């Protein structure tokens, strides 16, 4: 992980995380169709709460970048929408 949440930034932590994850997805770190790390893993990785991770994932779902399958996880969509 190279990027971190900036606790002094004006943006909410969940917005920062959504932006970081979008860059990781669009940069190919999370390939289309693959599962991204779970909420607990992301919360630990970025030093934030599970609710913050959930809110970030909502942003990514709203942008059409990921889909969440109950009891399976969150996956990058097969075809990324344009930026």
Automatic annotation (TrEMBL):
The keyword Transcription applies. This is Winged helix-turn-helix domain-containing protein. PROSITE patterns: HTH_GNTR. InterPro entries: Bact_HTH_transcr_reg, Tscrpt_reg_HTH_GntR, WH-like_DNA-bd_sf, WH_DNA-bd_sf. Signal peptide: none annotated. Keywords: DNA-binding, Transcription, Transcription regulation. The keyword Transcription applies. Residues 11-79 form the HTH gntR-type domain. It holds the Pfam family GntR.
């Amino acid at each position: 992980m190279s990027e971190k949440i900036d606790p002094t930034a004006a943006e909410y932590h969940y917005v920062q995380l959504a932006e970081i994850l979008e860059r990781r997805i669009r940069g190919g770190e999370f390939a289309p169709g693959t599962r991204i790390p779970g909420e607990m893993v992301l919360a630990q990785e970025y030093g934030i709460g599970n609710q913050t991770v959930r809110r970030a994932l909502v942003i990514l779902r709203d942008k059409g970048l990921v889909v969440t399958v109950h009891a399976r996880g969150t996956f990058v969509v097969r075809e990324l929408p344009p930026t």
